[in-house]
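#data-curation
PF: Archiving a pair of folding outputs for the training set. Convention for this channel: one message per protein, sequence first, structure tokens after, nothing in between. First:
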Amino acid sequence: MDGSTDLLLPKHPAYRHTYDVYSVIAGGLAPPNIEEVSTSWRRSACQYGINPDKSEAPNILTLKEVESHRQALDDLIFCAQEEIDHLYKVVRDAGYTVLLCNRTGVAVEHRGDATAADQFKNWGAWLGGVFAEELEGTNGIGTCIAEERSVTIHRSQHFRSRNTDLSCSGAPIFDIDGTLMAVLDVSSVDPGLSESAHGLAGPLTIKSARAIEERYFRTRFRKEWIVMIVPPEDDSNAMLLAVDAGERIIAANRSARDTFHLQNDAFPSGLSLWTIFVKDADLFRPTKAEDLPKTLTRQGDFSQWLVLATPPQKASSLLYGQKDVALHTRPRLGLLGALKNLPPKTTVYGGLSPRTMRRVCEYIEQHFSERIQIAELAGIASLSIYHFARQFRVSAGVTPHIYITRKRLEVARTMLTQTDLSVTEVALAAGFSDQSHFTRLFRHFVGTTPARFRWSQR
């Protein structure tokens, strides 16, 4: 932009902010620091009809009104106390307040300096403040709810001109069914707070939100095995599975649901953990009631995944040992770095060599729609049928027949979700002999019929 054009831009910060808002809404290029929230700006104006120059102060509910919103989150609030206290201890000296908000943007729990209460209330950043995006436009709480992702909003990134002295960072907290449950937020009303300084608040808030989410999950399923899983290439957010005595997955946090494509209809019947990983008979047999670190092999690509298995809480602890309860439900996110440094998995003697196993699996991948004879696979491995079947099971944790069936079901699930082929056509394309055979196996392994599965995905 040349100097002559620059002279036409408004000089007063409030007017300049309004100019930028309307420019973005009209389809103009967003300033560099606005690009990430430009979609929210457009949503605030076009969908919610909010005036960026709206001067009214945010709405703050009475304590009685707040209580009605708190009740639905009582269990979460109880689990969150320690993490909220710790987060506030870290950010307090920097002049922040900490807010826990429900999914409608109401602050139902907070930590803040009572001497600065009036100042925070002026922006609504206090107990009872309402920060839904449809009411306040772009902000760290409301936009986090709208987009279900962590959001850091610094001063002029807010939609309303009135809020351009406010800085906030919000992180979502997801329920055990993967839906948004709450938002953890830290907010500052310091007009001199730099963007780089405020940038430090985001990671702290995310870390605390993940810890609250994990503690809540572990508390809800403290009578089951909790398996924390670390992906091979990313230890930023662990996946959590609740596994029953039959080694079936009965619950999963949002990260695990997304990674392993787990749907709600898989949980009532219980999905075996060994449909995802090669079976390890020692995982659920610890000699002591303590965390057990292991390395599991992923079905299909045979990649190595670190896990930390926490045994079910003992009945005696549930009744008498509050210290044991706290120990059992504490977050393990801080152990991820230590898990990465575990010694390599002990070599298991027997089984096919990695090279032979890869050749066999590649053949199955290419010919799953055809009738595959075990003799063909044994030939690829240069072994007798009997010896091949036994060694394959050692390597994969299942028989060749079950492995092939799972591969076909995996393909069928994708086709049911992404195509309009009939169930019969999907069955034949995936290599099953007929629809009834396909439906019977699908119900056994997935826990529902192909038709119901397809309906649940749309």
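PF: Second:
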Amino acid sequence: MLDQSRSAISTLLDERREGHSLPAGLYTREDVYEADLDVFFRKHWIFIGPECDVPEPGDASVIDVAGSSLIMLRDDDGEVRVFHNVCRHRGARILDEGTSVVSKLVCPYHQWTYELTGELAYAPHMGRDFDKTCNSLKPVNFRNIGGLIHVCLSDDPPADIDALEAVGRDRLLPYDLKNTRVAFTQDVIEHGNWKLTIENNRECYHCAANHPELCVSYIDLDFGFDPESLSPEDRERAARHEALYARQIVAWEAEGYPSAAIEHLSKTESNFRTQRLIISGAGESQTPDARAAVAKLTGIGRKDLGDTHLWGHNSWHHFMGDHIIVAAVIPLGPDKTLLRMKWLVNKDAVEGMDYDLHNLTSVWVATNEEDAALVGRSHAGVSDPAYVPGMYSPFTEKQLDWFAGWYVDRMRAHGY
């Protein structure tokens, strides 16, 4: 049966046409979903949360993904660590999902007790010959990318994470995520395949018709356009905008703020893109009026540096002067995906004094709910017998074409 399933998946991969969306089965089949978990959520680097989820020694956060439960914590020396949430005795879960504060990690089943560094400290009634040193918690490969915690559940993680780490060092560290806190978390269940969630995020072809809140701070020309469809006036506007971007990137980089696009989107193991974007209108933040929502700025200390966006194959993030948005995509089934978004602010910012929570969050809360409806519509459509893969716009959806090609390449690399 396993060989038959691999053969069926391989046939679907063969059917994918460049410039077109994926065959239906790659979105809808249970065996494809299981293969996706194995390839993209166990063998590639994935984002699980920001460093500020565990701000103080003893703070712990449990994240469930791809069948694994992970404990992210900060130890007594202030170092972030990630362990499998599996007791070395008989496998019981040590902590429940969510956040907690602990002095040690104590399994509630038989009281096996671990230090925050993972070493087994206490195992009652195991005899004098029992070797505690062989029963530490299993660590998880992780990297702190500018305050964003990425893990790989494989013992052979992709080495090109170094490229993303360099981006984090140069572009994200100035925002000082270690000294932020989570002001708000929104969990949205999207009734669609995880790839549809990612595809929806990677294009703004749909934004003007569906995201009035976001379009206050987004510039439509940034997301591609067909020049032949523009009026002479709009072509002139587009030319002015492209010239402005070129000047702005030069100016930002002259001040020491890397801004130009970096794209690792094909022929690579770790899929990511980053660029500093100009914010429209008041130019400060992704808020209802495009002005900063938080009086106490993030570590970068300025609100005129646009929006440093970064996306990976299970995440997207926006770094602005007043706040930071981080989002993780976690598959729950072939047709169900968890989107977890967090708004980060300066750790000293006080709600009601330095910011209004609704003003801070309303744009992306609305956008996420609108996108969830669109992803649900998309999944219903690809599940319909009438669906055939459609052509991507070469002007506004080229990122989707690259993602689909990368997806097929990575599946092939893992034997499908």
